[in-house]
Design a protein that fits this description.
Blueprint lengths: L7 H14 L4 H13 L4 H14 L11 H8 L13 H31 L5 E4 L15 E13 L7 E4 L2 E14 L3 E15 L2 E13 L6 E4 L3 E5 L3 E6 L5 E7 L1 E6 L6 E3 L19 E2 L3 E5 L5 E6 L6 E4 L16 E10 L16 E6 L6 E6 L17 E8 L3 E8 L9 H4 L5 E8 L4 E6 L2 E7 L14 E3 L17 E10 L5 H12 L9 H10 L3 E4 L3 E4 L6 E2 L1
Parallel strand pairs: 1-3, 6-7
Antiparallel strand pairs: 2-3, 2-4, 4-5, 5-6, 6-9, 7-8, 8-11, 9-10, 10-28, 11-27, 12-26, 13-16, 14-15, 15-26, 16-25, 17-22, 17-26, 18-19, 18-25, 19-20, 20-21, 22-23, 23-24, 28-29
Helix pairs in contact: 1-2, 1-3, 3-5
Pfam family, one: Laminin_G_3
Protein name: FecR protein
Organism: Gimesia aquarii
């Protein structure tokens, strides 16, 4: 009868027994070392067996580590007063030799295992991250690849952190060592731990905290680095940037020249609808025309000269254009480190108090840009499936919803129940026929997503600091509706019912004090900017830029982005 073949575990334990009994041969020892080297998963079982054998010899007491003193005691003559006769010298010598061999083996393999773990770099997946899968939308383009790691411990922020050689927009958290990336726009970026760094586009990155060095050889492909207070624009040079715990920015130019300017503090778009009746509606800042659906009617303003009434019909809509977007992550609606939607509304929403269970659900859109899952929306909603996208989960029922796609988190909505609880307005209060100031913000520097009503914070949720927005693209933005098909028709399926005025879109998060200030001005019959927006725009265009040349260093203030001399 054929003997059953030994398993790997049985073979190792048999050799370990021979080792501990002192009968192992040189060739068997070589076999044991080879097996333990090739099969690291068996080392723990081997070590447990050896420790058990050693403890049974009486050299170590339970719970103690073997010491030199314990080994020395094992080879000293026994107390002759004891009744048990001493073991022959050759047995003591054999036992002690066995223990020393075992201890040497244990130390060898523990040390070997530790070194092996320290030397193995983080696992790198040689494919694009799967954070951004959306079957209805082309994912963002690859923005960077991994160049080098030096004793680095790092991860991508998100639900399913991964390490990959190819990066779509996302945020890297580096906790030790150094890591370098090559951006597809031409910039080489090297991070020094600890650091938090966002990769937004092929020519744009964000340093939330820490230190990096940047090198760019082609001045025709500028690279912009954003920090909490400034933008550093590299025109073919080499420089270092540090963001400290106080959010101050330090810039040191090693070669060439960089331009540093304060981050923008004004809206990208502002639709106040105050143009003359005979003139077309336009964006106040850019002058871009607005296309008006047949059932969107110009009326006297809630603030200023004009506003727009929507009557819940499919062609009640304002088509705004796509802001120059071509693909996801492009155009003026592409916001990465923060966004704000602000509007003054009178809601005549006809939804019932209970959540609707059958399609079509009654959504009243204030603002929506529908780039698949990379959409931006601010709307009144009442459905029975909101928990699929809610963060955090709330009771079903009428709510004010603020939806964004966050890198590593996917598309999600902050749904504020209109229940009158915990400082939130009720549905009846929202539909009381009075104007209400509604502001939705997301701040990537703090991770806070928030909704304000009439100057007060009503609901918020915190994501990991550095979590970025993915937005922008070819689809036009719409006020007062969702148009997901033929945009030329101006016909949508989620029309607003009521009045909308003073709509603003910002590429950053307004803080609570500014929101309260804007509401106070509305109560005084003024616009958000106290009639000074044109002056503010001119001031921002004309000043604030600082040119730094080779060898120059400068610190910039956390709040204003102004240089500190």
């Amino acid at each position: 009868m054929t003997e059953p073949k030994q398993t790997l575990s049985e073979q190792i334990l048999e050799l370990a027994d021979a080792q501990c009994s002192g009968t192992i041969t040189e060739s068997e020892m070589e076999t044991l070392e080879r097996l333990l080297t090739d099969h690291s998963e068996c080392r723990r079982e081997y070590l447990d067996y050896v420790f058990l054998h050693v403890s049974l010899t009486g050299v170590a007491t339970s719970g103690e580590l073997l010491s030199v003193e314990a080994i020395e005691k094992s080879i000293l003559p026994r107390d002759t007063s004891r009744t048990t006769p001493p073991k022959p010298l050759h047995l003591w010598f054999t036992q002690t030799l066995c223990i020393l061999v075992c201890l040497f083996s244990i130390g060898f393999f523990l040390f070997f295992s530790k070194d092996e773990q320290a030397d193995v770099p983080p696992q790198v997946v040689d494919k694009t991250s799967q954070y951004y899968f959306d079957e209805n939308t082309t994912p963002p383009e690859e923005v960077a690849t991994l160049s080098e790691t030096v004793q680095a411990t790092w991860e991508l922020l998100g639900k399913h952190p991964a390490i990959t050689k190819h990066f779509q927009p996302g945020t890297v958290k580096l906790t030790s060592g150094n890591v370098a990336f090559a951006f597809s726009g031409g910039a080489d970026i090297s991070l020094v731990s600890p650091a938090l760094f966002g990769m937004e586009r092929k020519n744009h990155g964000t340093l939330f905290s820490g230190t990096l060095s940047a090198h760019l050889t082609d001045p025709q492909s500028p690279f912009t680095l954003e920090t909490p207070s400034v933008e550093v624009i590299d025109l073919g040079t080499e420089y270092e940037v540090t963001v400290n715990e106080a959010s101050e920015t330090f810039v040191h130019v090693l070669d060439g020249q960089v331009k540093v300017k304060p981050r923008r503090r004004l809206p990208r778009f502002y639709w106040n609808f105050d143009q003359l009746e005979e003139s077309p509606l336009t964006d106040t800042i850019s002058g871009n025309a607005i296309r008006i659906g047949r059932n969107a009617k110009r009326i006297p303003g809630l603030i200023g000269e004009g506003a727009v009434r929507f009557n819940n019909k499919p062609d009640a809509s304002l088509l705004l254009g796509n802001g120059g977007g071509i693909e996801v992550g492009t155009g003026d609606y592409s916001a990465s480190t923060g966004v704000t939607l602000e509007a003054l509304v009178i809601s005549e929403w006809q939804t019932p108090n209970e959540p609707q269970t059958k399609y079509p659900f009654d959504y009243d859109e204030i603002f929506r840009k529908e780039d698949g899952n990379y959409r931006i929306l601010l709307s009144f909603q009442n459905d029975d499936g909101a928990s699929q996208t809610q963060i955090p989960d709330v009771e079903r029922g009428p709510c004010l919803s603020f939806g964004l796609f966050l890198s590593g988190m996917g598309y999600n909505e902050l749904d504020m129940p209109l229940d009158g609880k915990e400082g939130r307005p009720s549905l009846e209060e929202i539909r009381d026929g009075k104007p209400h100031h509604i502001v939705a913000t997301y701040n990537g520097w703090t991770g806070i997503k928030a909704i304000y009503v009439d100057g007060k914070l009503c609901m918020s949720h915190r994501f990991p600091v550095g979590t970025m927005i993915i937005s922008g693209g070819r689809t036009p933005a719409v006020i007062g509706n969702l148009i997901s098909g033929n945009f030329e028709s101006l016909v949508g399926r989620e029309p607003f019912n009521g009045v909308i005025d003073e709509v603003a879109f910002y590429g950053f998060a307004l803080d609570a004090a500014t929101v309260a200030q804007h509401y106070a001005r509305v109560q005084q019959g003024k616009d958000y900017f106290d009639g000074q927006l044109n002056n503010f725009v001119m001031q921002e265009k004309e000043g604030g830029n600082v040119l730094l040349n080779k060898g120059e260093k400068m610190k910039f203030a956390a709040e204003t982005g102004e240089p500190i001399f």
